[in-house]
Amino acid sequence: MKKIIFLVILLLLFPSCFKRGLERPPKIANIKIYFSSQIDIPAELISLISKSKKSIHLACYEISLPSVVKALSKARERKIDVKVITDRGKSALMHHKFIIIDGEIVWTGSFNLTPGAAYQDDNNVIIINSSQLAENFEAKFKNMWEGNYYSSLKPPYSIVKIHPHLTPPPFPHLLSSPLEGEEGKERGINNIKIETYFSPNGGCEEAIIKRIKKAKKSIYFATFVFTNRKIANAIVKKFNEGIKVKGIMEREGLSPYCRYWLFKDIKADVKWDNNFYLLHHKFFIIDDKILITGSYNPTRGAEEKNEENILILESPEICSIYQDEFERLW
Fold it and tell me: Which residues does the UniProt record annotate as the domain PLD phosphodiesterase (predicted)?
């Protein structure tokens, strides 16, 4: 009994010492992917902040990590242009979790800057070194910074193509080694196409449904809340056509509008998450080659009211990394 009490105290005092999972995900040049089960994400962010050269533009629903706040303060002392937007407590949420560093690096995903997100909940972060992608996010940030919250910024945003082995990025501290195969040899990586969408009413729902309708083999998803009827119906239709559907949902997302029971009724393979805390992911994997991730839960609020973002990436290599996380959760 004393050992159990001792372990509980350690967990409360030093949560980062009890990461739940596996080794770090494989690396792809110009892109990093982190899961909260595998790595101390705040430490990685603080490292990026400390190496910033000119600007940090941050839009995040919640910010309560003292270490990150301190790092941002130090950046301001270095005369870095630090701008922060967070939620204002309105019925429509500023629900983003993105950061743009030096106009070159984009950090996004499901990760709020809170201790719970870092050390208890299941979250993902994707960091992409691309000035073109940064321009897309800077346009949204500028729109909000000027007070234009909840206004539609519709596509077209620039479609970004990452060429992992052609042009070294200008920030070596972000450059990851190429993805490696079983024998340590470089595994071939095709150009990675990335599309950007923002809410409200900026095309997120339409883009997700478009990818679902084109599914030929499988649809996997891990979502905190799932109430969007149109997206759910698109998945049901593909399931009825024989497409494999497998999903994990957070039990705290249960409501009269939750689509869990819709999927159960058609015998789709869905389950509640097992994490004592929260499954906070918001990602889809389609046909092992299309990844959709960001701050956007498939809900009506996310589509019509909130400030949200998604990335759609065409990359079997990236999908395989997220698939590993899905299987761990399963």
Answer: 90-117, 275-302
